[in-house]
Design brief:
single chain; alpha/beta; seven-stranded mixed sheet; three-stranded mixed sheet; 6 helices; about 25% helix; globular
Length: about 200
């Protein structure tokens, strides 16, 4: 078996291309995933940033929501950024009507907590488990984590708010590391996938 994990990027909506590039730079074989049969062929999955309500509805429409929940429950490594963090939360504090989550991380998230699009910003974020200094985080209408359960581990905070969490094979960040050219968070995720193959 090759040591190169196959990692999908959920390609229903959002910044798919940037994640594919970041994963390839972190020595994974990256491919877009839109259908259940494509999900079945990957070792791990990234759920990108975008609009969480739209992604939730598209996942249901494309028949992806139940297969996603099943794979995550079965231990498939998964990494969500921004909207992806919201989809991995077991609970959303202020969900839109009809908004569902995949779940997998015992956390409560607040949508758009850092403000509107024009309040987007970049910040250096120290992430537990990532060496060589802070990563550059791009926050775009980003959520934050209001609280975590006993199983979830807080691995980064910014401005007094939780912005990165890990629980078992699930990883989530409020920010977009795929937009910076610093692929250390993706490398951490690739290592998580490699560890369970």
């Amino acid at each position: 078996m090759s040591d190169t994990p196959v990692i999908g990027v959920l390609a229903l909506q959002g910044d798919v291309r940037e994640h594919l590039i970041a994963l390839a730079s972190a020595d994974a074989l990256a491919r877009p995933v839109r259908r259940p049969e494509e999900l079945a062929e990957v070792d791990g999955l990234v759920i990108p940033g975008g609009e969480s309500t739209t992604m939730s509805k598209l996942a249901v429409l494309f028949g992806m929501m139940d297969p996603l929940r099943e794979r995550v429950r079965a231990g498939m490594p998964v990494y969500g950024t921004c909207a992806g963090m919201i989809l991995l939360a077991d609970k959303i504090l202020d969900p839109r009507s009809g908004q569902e989550t995949v779940g997998g991380i015992d956390m409560i998230v607040r949508r758009n907590a850092f403000g509107r699009q024009n309040e987007s910003f970049e910040a250096a974020v120290a992430v537990d488990g990532i060496a060589d200094g802070p990563v550059e985080g791009v926050f775009i209408r980003a959520p934050w984590v209001e609280s975590v359960g006993a199983q979830a581990q807080v691995i980064a905070e910014h401005g007094g708010h939780i912005v990165a969490v890990r629980q078992g094979n699930a990883l989530a960040t409020s920010f977009h590391p795929e937009l910076t050219g610093d692929h250390r968070v993706h490398a951490l995720f690739v290592d998580m996938v490699r560890a369970v193959r």
